[in-house]
What does this fold into?
Amino acid sequence: MEAVKGNKENGKTAKCCRLIKPFEWEGKTYTEFVFDFEGLKGADLIAVEDEITMDGSYIITPEISTPYMAKLAARAAGVGSDVIENLPVRDFIAVKNMARDFLINTDLER
It folds into this structure.
């Protein structure tokens, strides 16, 4: 996955990631995702936690929780979490790491 930073979407900086190769899920083909992490709200973070706890799991530290980061990335990209969770492993890891970097670097950018 290739990260392309600095794209503007809705007046905000978004991160665009191109997949290694096109990915098809439920009849739709994806070649890239645009992640607008800055556009998320606190309610989105709470909704991600709620979605995970509904599965019977829990999160102690979101920054190291793979399910949390995958679902957060899906929200930032405006796709269902099933799309992100079914990516080929190399693309999945890249997406997960983008979400992790956002969570970790948010404190550093103040």
